[in-house]
Design brief:
six-stranded antiparallel beta barrel; about 240 residues; mainly beta; signal; Peptidase_S1A; Thrombin, subunit H
Length: about 240
């Protein structure tokens, strides 16, 4: 799932193929196999029977983080995936989802969600959590990387079988909202199906998660993880 926006309104793209096909993260290349063991591929089943896809990332033995706009009735979370066509992956159900209680689906503020897995994850070389940035980390990272199985461009809804990645440079100009988000500019970046995947910056930490794309401005926004660490830690500790 991915959100596209013009100047004033964000429009959620709802139509997805129920099967992944050849495609790629926009402007990127195939990642080295299993080089990102924190990555998760979410199959999201809505109440009306539609199926969509989102990215996510493992943050503990029980929790995966993704975007709140990926909320669904049920989920399948696959870990240890490089080639989705391969049988060599771990797929789990979700016991409970925790979208941010102040998430707004009109402007997609607080676009963050935790999924508690139904089964404890056993870590191995292909399945590992990523460290989350906190308030003590660099508040203005520049060079980052995003990855996912999403589409090649906004005109092609076919998704990639294999994990792809692309470097993005964060911007801090007037077009980027200052509160709770990072932004990157340019045509390269995440595509449809990449929502909820991590924005990985300095020291290999997850600084953000993929939220919305503004095609007219060639701007992508990412929920800023350090601003939500208290909320994240509270859920993971008590739920």
């Amino acid at each position: 799932m991915f959100i596209y926006s013009d100047f004033a309104a964000l429009v959620l793209v709802l139509t997805f193929n129920s099967q992944a096909h050849a495609g790629r993260i926009i402007g990127g290349h195939e990642a080295a196999a299993h080089s990102k063991p924190y990555m998760a591929l979410l199959t999201c089943h809505s109440a009306n029977g539609n199926t969509s896809y989102c990215g996510g990332f493992l943050v503990s033995e029980y929790f995966v983080m993704t975007a709140a706009h990926c909320k669904a009735k049920t989920y399948e979370v696959c870990l240890g995936v490089h080639d989705f066509a391969s049988q060599n992956k771990l797929c789990l159900s979700v016991e409970q989802d925790f979208p941010h209680e102040k998430y707004e689906n009109t402007n997609y503020t607080n676009d963050i969600m935790l999924l508690k897995l139904s089964t404890k994850v056993v870590f191995d070389k292909n399945v590992q959590p990523i460290v989350l940035a906190d308030v003590c980390d660099n508040k203005s990272p520049k060079k980052c990387l995003v990855s996912g199985w999403g589409t090649m461009n906004e005109h092609n809804k076919d998704m990639s079988y294999k994990l792809r990645e692309v470097n993005v440079t964060l911007t801090h100009d007037d077009l980027c909202p200052e509160k709770n988000v990072y932004c990157s500019k340019g045509e390269k970046g995440p595509g449809e199906g990449d929502s909820g995947g991590p924005l990985v910056c300095e020291d290999g930490k997850a600084f953000g998660l993929i939220s919305a794309k503004h095609p007219c401005l060639k701007l992508t926004t990412y929920t800023k993880i350090p601003d939500y660490r208290e909320w994240i830690d509270e859920i993971m500790k008590h739920k």
